[in-house]
Amino acid sequence: MSNKRTLILDKKQIHQKSIRIAYQILEDNFEEKSIVLVGIADRGYIFATRLQHILQEIAPDKTFELLKVTIAKTKRSLEASIDGPIETATNKVIILIDDVLNSGRTLAYGLGMFLDVPLKKMRTAVLIDRSHHQFPLFSDYYGLKLSTILKEHVEVVLEEVDKEEDAAWLS
């Protein structure tokens, strides 16, 4: 793997993409009074928190609940937990959120948490969609769709986790 890193999104661009995704979520769900944002720990949850703040600013008449799903990403079977009552999502629109969509496994595991919950609809939001889907899951809302080769790696740096300025890198 190369040591060369290429900046694909800087802090300002990540913020702009987040605002655009928030507006898309609102447009797609304009009739809903309450939407549940489900962030996949760690970076997906931080991204979901940021989207929640933006959504609350632009649509103060709506409620945006936030849940965090923690997934054992290295396991071959679903091992996950949620930080609140799963019934929060009952008969509501939920947006499953992560930072990068690569194979779709993480989103598939996140979806698995809600298989027994009656939902109005489920959508997915990611900052970067790499288009290497091994599972039939696709991003409904995305900041950047990026064609990469399998050997390349996309790294999203978020201030809250990495103590560095927001950025997305391709290496």
Automatic annotation (TrEMBL):
Pfam families: Pribosyltran. It comes from the Bacteria. GO terms for molecular function: glycosyltransferase activity. Keywords: Glycosyltransferase, Transferase. Residues 8-147 form the Phosphoribosyltransferase domain. This is Phosphoribosyltransferase family protein. It comes from Sphingobacterium suaedae.
